[in-house]
Write a structure and sequence with these properties.
Largest sheet: none
Order of helices and strands: HHHHHHHHHHHHHHHHHHHHHH
Helix content: over 70%
Distance between the termini: 55 Å
Length: 538
């Protein structure tokens, strides 16, 4: 892929974005049908067809991020169709959330953003966790995207040819490369000398190669050596493992030639390229690779990735406006019924329909993560159970007053996350106004109690994982941490919510497995959860 593919993607989106969004909307509606009636699998099969269309169209216009997320959603639907999921609710919730994020991602691309699959890593991994699948690291997603796009290194920037003597040179230099590799891995005094020698050997083999994968691998290995010598790249265990694999590739090249090593060389080169791109190196070899592979587009800085994730984290403004309008319309009908009940003394009031309307609004607010407002509405639905034609006007007025407080708080609650600038100081953050009534007090108390229960379940799931290695409960634990974070954000404790989302990212990240290997890290995780408990109890 070259620079011309960016306008090509924008042009492709211009023609097919409408069809993709319609397919996503139909898929979301079909999944919602299944949630309402799980006994019927036909909506899931139809949703699978819609997402298959989204995946295929996205791949056709070289939009790998959307294609990758659509593929994960298809896998989730397949698991539901074949009943391979014991608890389908978390997966359905994740699928519905992904339909929203996918639309927002396409909107960001249409506004001039770059297609970067790392932006969608949290959504992809949440789907995988709900299916009990291992999460994908940034390196794995980056490699998948580059392979899908067919990005490769030009053979000769100056137009010169290559000798094709890579196999002979590999056989000649293999013993020296292996000895240098061992010295570097062991950290002996000759380690840096060996590292420099490995870089020179890699550059020499690259110059002799005739095939793109082999040439690319050894150009990248030479750049890794350059970054390590400049102390701009940490010699982590993963990096040593990858460099060790390059030694095995050199041996295979010496024994069987370039054709036999091409497939393994391509994948390995992209994994090493990820390490180089994330380094602080500014050497000539590293700079040349960053330019050739357009790494500013496909592997932006962590800060830029987080900024792009924030833009698509929640529902789009158009969707929020539609949801807000639908809720307000439902509230208007309820207020009309209450007005009729007050005027007629309760005669002819449709209690069942009013309760059903409040229940629908409560469910919608819950799906949006507006826990406090949801609890207020749920309280009024419960209060209607005790209301009859003999109830006084005061009961109806109390219900109407609570509904008005929720309605007046709705806009701020819905748009809070979208309005907040990324660098806004905590002191200046927009305050979410929620009803100051007995309902709010009860809702807050219920939320705190539920948070403590959820924390206990998280601790139990992590304890089981540390003791036995069983990770079946970890996806649910991640969702529970997310629920607690949402509750804090609705209550105005944005700092607490942000820290809990960091904890959730660690819980679903690749480094979480280190808790089984390090008692110190396990104790630190336990202390973190305990601190959250103390905060809630206070």
């Amino acid at each position: 892929m070259n620079a011309s593919l960016r306008p090509q993607l924008a042009n492709g989106l211009h023609w097919v974005r409408g069809e993709i969004e319609q397919s996503i909307t139909r898929a979301r509606s079909l999944i919602e049908q299944y949630v309402e009636d799980a006994s019927e699998a036909m909506p899931l099969q139809q949703a699978y067809v819609e997402l298959h269309t989204v995946r295929g169209t996205s791949a056709m216009i070289q939009c790998h991020g959307a294609a990758a997320l659509a593929e994960e959603m298809k896998q989730g639907l397949q698991d539901l169709i074949h009943q391979r999921i014991q608890e389908p609710e978390p997966l359905c919730a994740a699928l519905l959330a992904c339909t929203i994020q996918l639309n927002d991602y396409l909107l960001a691309l249409a506004d001039g953003g770059d297609d970067c699959v790392l932006v969608l890593q949290p959504a992809i991994n949440e789907l995988r966790l709900t299916r009990n699948q291992p999460v994908l690291t940034e390196a794995e997603l980056f490699t998948q995207q580059m392979l899908a796009l067919g990005v490769s290194l030009p053979m000769a920037e100056d137009g010169s040819g290559f000798t094709g003597a890579a196999q002979q040179q590999a056989a000649k230099l293999l013993p020296l490369f292996q000895a240098s590799l061992v010295a570097w891995i062991r950290g002996t005094q000759q380690g840096r000398t060996g590292l420099a020698r490995m870089g020179k050997i890699a550059e020499h083999v690259a110059q002799q190669a005739q095939t793109v994968p082999v040439h690319q691998l050894w150009r990248v290995v030479a750049a890794v050596a350059e970054a390590l010598l400049g102390r701009a790249l940490d010699d982590s265990i993963d990096l040593k493992r990858l460099i060790g694999r390059s030694g095995a590739q050199l041996k295979l090249l010496a024994e069987q030639g370039e054709v036999a090593t091409a497939e393994g060389a391509l994948d390995l080169s992209l994994q090493l390229l990820f390490m180089v791109a994330r380094s602080r190196a500014q050497g000539a070899r590293v700079v040349a690779l960053r330019k050739a592979f357009q790494l500013s587009v496909y592997l932006p800085s962590q800060v830029q990735v987080e900024e792009n994730r924030r833009k698509i984290h929640g529902p789009s403004t158009s969707l929020l406006a539609r949801v807000s309008e639908e809720i307000r319309t439902e509230f208007s009908r309820i207020k009309d019924r209450i007005d009729l009940a007050v005027r007629t003394g309760g005669a002819g009031a449709d209690f069942a329909e009013t309760r059903a309307s409040l229940k629908r609004i409560s469910d919608t607010l819950s799906a949006l993560g507006l826990t406090v407002l949801q609890r207020v509405v749920a309280n009024q639905a419960e209060a209607l159970e005790a209301v009859d034609e003999n109830s006084g006007a005061g009961v109806w007025m109390e219900i109407a007053t609570s509904i008005l407080r929720v309605e007046n708080s709705l806009e701020n609650a819905l748009y809070f996350q979208l309005r907040r600038p990324r660098d806004m100081d905590q002191r200046d953050e927009l305050e979410v106004k929620t009803p100051a009534s007995r309902d709010l007090s009860e809702g807050m108390s219920a939320l705190y109690r539920e948070s403590l229960v959820n924390l206990a379940r998280v601790k139990a799931a992590v304890d089981t994982y540390i003791k036995s290695g069983t990770s079946a409960e970890l996806p649910e634990a991640a969702l529970l941490v997310d629920e607690i974070a949402s509750g804090f954000e609705i209550l105005g404790s944005a700092r607490a919510g942000s820290l809990l989302r960091q904890l959730r990212r660690f819980l679903v990240g690749a480094s979480f497995g280190s808790l089984r290997e390090s008692h110190e890290r396990a104790d630190r995780f336990a202390d973190t959860v305990a601190c959250v408990e103390y905060y809630v109890e206070a």
